[in-house]
Design a protein that fits this description.
The protein has 18 helices and no strands. With about 425 residues, the protein is mostly helical. The chain folds into two domains: about 1-190, Up-down Bundle (Growth Hormone, Chain: A); about 220-410, MFS general substrate transporter like domains (Growth Hormone, Chain: A, Up-down Bundle), CATH 1.20.1250.20.
Amino acid sequence: MLASIPGQTMGVSVFTDHLMEALGLSRVGISSAYMAGTLISSLIIPYAGVLFDRYGARIVAAFASLFLSGFLFLLAYALPVSQALSSLGLPMGMATLAVTILGFLGIRFFGQGVLTLVSRGMVAKWFGPRRGLAVGLMGIITAFGFSYAPQPLQMLINGWGWQQALISLAFILLFLFFPFVLLIFRAEPTTCGLEVEQGIKRISSAKAQKVPDAKVEKDLKQARKDRTFYLILASLGFWSLFNTAFTFHITSLYQEVGFDANQAVRIFLPISVVSVLARFLGSYLTDRVGMKSIYAGFIASLVVASISLLFLGSPLGDLLAILGFGIGGGLFGMLNILTWPKLYGRKHLGQISGFAMSVIVAGSAIGPWIFSVIHRFFGSYKGTGILGLLWCVLMIILLVLTPFSSAEKEMEQS
């Protein structure tokens, strides 16, 4: 998961202004390139899930690390590559935009997409009853790692320059992470002669019954016939849209209410603390209560996050933002791993999670653009909070009307 940081929003954001200056792109231009690359990535990510099912975690992650490294090199040398294309007759502006889109496509697909999909898929396939605990432990590292990442990246840029910083990240992936993947990564326990973790057997029978994985294995075609699948995608996809836009526009959001950039980014630390706690609690509860209840809590966190944007900058607004985005972020990371094996089984995990990842990545692509459009037309970001609340009302209605007809229903009928 940490190796995917160069392709995540917080990893890209520290290089944005440097790329704009070096390539002569406007903020609208680089935002459009980012959106285009991410949207294209979302269209092809489902195929990565199919490859994960077919070839396993080690091969897919190894190739992803190699290609992510290569696309970091491309962005580092984007200007000379653009100049070379221009010398062949392509207009410089078009060449620059094409190289930037290609670079963003590569790092978003292989970083945010493939490496994230493989990491979450491995946890889902290796762990059984203790999967929730494993997800919670992984969440500690990823939450704080992602929150802290911009600082060391900025230190690299300050010390060596943005190009050398990108090249350094590429070399780390090439010479450290790539060998690590080959040595450590395995698709599932059976490839090593092991069994899926079954937890510790307890003598007492008074313990609460744990919610098992789905008894019937379903592939993507079968999952797409289940309306619950689309409710889940709508919930996860909109959270990706909303949270990415909040992160992307954090400085502008707080400037609107009279705060500078340094004051704006301080909110991420308490959000990450709440996120870790929520992820642990959510992981614990998914092993013991139905997934529908967890999704109710997830949508409730989005309600709180939406309300916070109406009062951002005030003590109440900031508190609501910390709680809403913190709890929602923790539950999102956990649900994106645990939902699929519990509802549809482990056999076709790559197909299903890959399709879901495409929706999530698409949401992250258009979220910042939607926020900027609302701000442009209404002169304020408060409309984004209203948008979130309207979506939550729809999600609550659908959640009430939609049965989670999966492993939970099977357990009730057994």
